[in-house]
Design goal:
The structure is a homodimer of 306-residue chains.
Chain A: E1 4-10, E2 24-29, E3 32-38, H1 42-48, E4 56-60, H2 72-81, E5 88-92, H3 95-107, E6 115-119, E7 127-130, E8 134-140, E9 148-154, E10 160-161, H4 164-169, H5 173-180, E11 185-186, E12 192-193, H6 195-198, E13 199-200, E14 207-211, H7 221-224, E15 229-233, H8 241-246, H9 252-261, E16 267-270, H10 280-287, E17 293-295, E18 301-303
C-alpha cells in the first residue's frame, strides 16, 4: 500500500513552550510531501527529524496568525541557500505574498526558484491541488480571521483483476481499466456484476482532514465526513469554554463531538494551550465522546487509515 | 560587582542546523536585559534556558537578513499574549517597522503595549540608548545590506571614599561625587591628588562589542578598541576566504586579526556556517592569531571582563 502518513512537527497554540513548537505538519502521500502550516522553528524541526526539506513542493498555510506561518520565510530562505531550483507551490491567504515580498525587498533577497501562489478563495470543497495520486480541497473554518482547513484524499489505487474473469466476461481494455478503479461491470444483457467479484485488493481511498484553528462548528461536518483521520484543534479543556468562544477556538470535548458526528475513523487533537503541561486530561476529555482519539505529539508519525 | 554577562541563544549563520539556532544573544548589565538580534526560534531558546522574556525592554536588531530577525514577531506576539503592558524599545533598521506592521495588519493583531522604534542612522559611535547603568553606541558594519554592530559600555560605578580623606582635604559634597566617579582632586593651592589616593574599589567600566555580520574591516577597530569582550562573526575558515568576501562575511583568522589589532581582552567567535559540524578548527584558527578566543555556544553564559 502506498504511504499516507502524517508527522507532527509542532503542536502548540499561539504561545510555544520549551518542548512544544507552533503548528506544522508533514504529510507524505505516495512520496508527495506536503507541509501543512509552518510555525516558527519548522525548519529546525524538519532537520531534527532528519527530513530533507527540498522534497517539499507544496505548502499549505491555513491562516495568517503568526503561529501558523512565521517559520515560512526562514524555510524558504534555507531552500534557496541550499540550491533549490524547483518551483514551490504555496496555497495560502493571498496577503501572504505581500508579507513575504516586503521582507525580501528589505533584505534584498531574490530566490533562485519560483514561488507559485495559489491564494485561498475560502470555498468549501474547492479543489485546490491534484495530481495522479492525490487531491486537496479546502474547508472554510470559523476563526477570528479568514482561515482554511484542508482535506487530502488519495486517488483510487487500481485493484488487481482476477485473471479468469477476462475470458469469462470477454473484457475489453477499457472495461478492465474502469473495473480496476472500482466500477461495477454491466454486461451486454444488462446484468450488473459487482466489482468485488472481478477485482481483488481494491482499497477505498483514504482521507486526512485538517481543521485548525476554528470555533466549534457543525457546518464543517459534511466536508470531513468519514475521514480516516481528522486532526481537529483542541486548544482548551471544556472548563474554559468561554475562553474558547472568545478566542474562536475549540475544547477537547467539542473536538470529540465533531469527530463523532462526522463519523470519522480516528481523531487527533492538538494546538494545545501553553497552560497544559500534562496533555492527558485533554485526551481523556475528547475520548469521553469519541474513543478513538490520539494526541498530536511532535516527531510522531501516524499512518492514515490504521 | 554588578552583572555584565552574555548568554548565547543562537550561533549559526543563515542556515540553522539541528543543534544550532540563528543569531540571538541576551546581555544582562546590572539587571537590564538586552536582546541582541532575534533569529527564528529565539523565544523557544529563551524558554529552554528558563529566562522570563518580559524582563527584556530593549531589543537591538543589527540588520534585516532573516537569520537576525525572523524570531522577532513571534517573541513580540508572545509578550502580548502573556500580558505585557510595558513599552518595548526596538533599535533596528527603520524598514522593520513596515515589516512588522504589514504582518500585524493581516493577522488583525494589536499589541497591548507600545513598541518604540529607534531606527538606525548608521553612524559610528552614535549613542542610541543610555540610562544610569549603561550606554549603547552603534558601529557601522560592512555587509551586503545596511548593518549595525553595537557597543555596550557600563557606566562608572562609584568607588568608596576613604573616610579619613574627607576631613584631610575638607571635601565638599560635590567634590566627593566627582571623586567617587574617578576624577582626581585639585586642591585650592593647585596640587593634583590622584584619585587612587582618596578612592578605593573604583572599577574601570567594562565594554562588550558586537560585530555581526561583516566583511573583514579594519575601519571598525577604533570603535571596539580595548573592549573587554568582542563578539566577531567567523562564518568560515580562511580556506574559504573567497566565499567570505563574496558573501560579505569574515573568516576565523580575520576575526582573530581584528581582535589582536583592536587589543581587546577576549574574543568570542560565532555565526558559524552550517558546513562546520566540528567547531574546533574555527577556534584553533582564530587562536593562532589571538590566543584568548572562545566559541559562542548556545546556552553558555560569559561574564564580560573575566
Amino acid at each position: 500500500m502506498q504511504h499516507f502518513e502524517l508527522t507532527i512537527l509542532g503542536c502548540s497554540s499561539a504561545t510555544p513552550t520549551s518542548n512544544r513548537n507552533p503548528t506544522a505538519q508533514l504529510l507524505n502521500i505516495a512520496e508527495r510531501f506536503f507541509l501543512i502550516d509552518c510555525g516558527e522553528g519548522t525548519q529546525m524541526q524538519l532537520r531534527k527529524f532528519k527530513f530533507k526539506f527540498q522534497r517539499i513542493n507544496h505548502i499549505f498555510i491555513s491562516h495568517l496568525h503568526g503561529d501558523h506561518y512565521l517559520g515560512l520565510l526562514g524555510l524558504l530562505s534555507s531552500m534557496h541557500l541550499l540550491g533549490r531550483k524547483d518551483d514551490l507551490h504555496l496555497y495560502c491567504p493571498g496577503e501572504l505574498q505581500e508579507i513575504l515580498e516586503v521582507q525580501n525587498k528589505h533584505s534584498q533577497t531574490f530566490f533562485n526558484y519560483q514561488i507559485i501562489y495559489h491564494p485561498h478563495t475560502y470555498e468549501n470543497g474547492k479543489l485546490i491541488m491534484q495530481d495522479n495520486k492525490v487531491e486537496v480541497r479546502t474547508i472554510v473554518l470559523n476563526h477570528r480571521i479568514p482561515c482554511c482547513g484542508f482535506v487530502f484524499t488519495e486517488k483510487q489505487v487500481p485493484g488487481n483483476i482476477l485473471p479468469e474473469m477476462i475470458s469469462k466476461y470477454n473484457l475489453t481494455v477499457e472495461e478492465i481499466m474502469h473495473l480496476k478503479r472500482g466500477s461495477d461491470l454491466t454486461t451486454s444483457d444488462g446484468t450488473v456484476v459487482p466489482n468485488a467479484e472481478i477485482i481483488s485488493n481494491l482499497k477505498t481511498p483514504r482521507t486526512y482532514a485538517y481543521c485548525s484553528d476554528t470555533l466549534y462548528d457543525e457546518g464543517l461536518i459534511p466536508y470531513i465526513k468519514g475521514a480516516d483521520l481528522l486532526y481537529h484543534e483542541s486548544t482548551f479543556l471544556h472548563g474554559m469554554l468561554d475562553r474558547a468562544k472568545q478566542t474562536h477556538h475549540t475544547t477537547a470535548l467539542q473536538a470529540g463531538t465533531i469527530a463523532k458526528m462526522a463519523e470519522v475513523k480516528k481523531l487527533m487533537i492538538g494546538h494545545y494551550s501553553a497552560r497544559y503541561k500534562d496533555l492527558e486530561p485533554l485526551l481523556e476529555e475528547a475520548k469521553s465522546v469519541f474513543e478513538n482519539t490520539v494526541l498530536a505529539i511532535e516527531g510522531e508519525t501516524t499512518e492514515v487509515g490504521q
